[in-house]
Every structure is written in structure tokens, then in C-alpha cells.
Specification:
Elements: E1 6-16, H1 27-37, E2 43-46, E3 54-59, H2 73-87, E4 94-103, E5 121-128, H3 131-137, H4 140-144, E6 152-160
Parallel strand pairs: 1-5
Antiparallel strand pairs: 1-3, 2-3, 4-5, 4-6
Amino acid sequence: MNESNLGRMLLSHNFQVSPEFLPALSREDFMAIFAAGLGDQMRCHLLDNPHWIVEILFPIASGASEAINSFTPQQVGELCGRALAAKRQPSSGKSDILVLGGLKTTPPTSDSPMALQPGNWGVDVVETFSGEEFLRSINWDTMIADKPAAAIFRVELSVGKS
């Protein structure tokens, strides 16, 4: 991968279901899901950061002359959601997976290389019983109201059986 044409996405994990319903994941297990699920087209690294768990480096899709093996942040989010859904099937019932991404446009809060930097995507990967209720609880519509559409994405998946 050409380093100058790479996008950077940092993932956190927001586990909103009971461990009896769906086992909690260690940081290492969370990272392994994406390392396996995203294949050789992207690089995944475990981060030493209290909030961010996984760094994903991916070839950026840019304009009309997009390379075959390049991705938009939305596409990476969708691949992340599918990778997690493939590994996180509850034994009974259903749960939702949300992948909520936002482009960092403000100065970093830390000078650590593990911190989210301007131009990076911060992505909250949420496992919850109800995606709709979770989005309402964080006031998602209000939170994104003043952001350009190109600076956010949302992926929603349901897993299991109703």
C-alpha cells in the first residue's frame, strides 16, 4: 500500500448487551475480528490507547479514477460491520451492530501517535439490543445535524433471530 494514499480509521467498542447474551470481547479478540475480516486489502493494528482499540489503514478511494482495491470510509465501515456480524451471532434472540463514523476536523487531544488526528476517522462500533434506542439515547440526529454528509457515516446491521 502506498502510504500517502492511505486512510486511517480508529475503532472503539461500545458493548451494550449483557455478557450472558453475547460474550464480551477482549481488545485482542476485537482486533482479530477485523484483521481476519478485512483480509489483505487493509492493515489492522492493536492500539495502546484507553479509548481506541484498533487502527485500520486502508487505500483511499478518490474521485472518478478510483483504483479497484480502494475504499471509501463508508465502505470500510460496512466491511467492519459485516466482519463483526459474522463472528457475533447470539445463541438466541437478536442484537444490533452499529458502526458510527466521524471525520476528525479539530486539533488532536493528545500528541500521542495513537490519538485520533485531523483527517482520521473515529469509529464507534456498538453492540446493542436496539440500534434505534441507542441512537436516540446519544441524540445522534442532533449530534450530526451540523456536520457535512461526507464527514459522517452510519452502518446498521441486525444479527440473530427475533
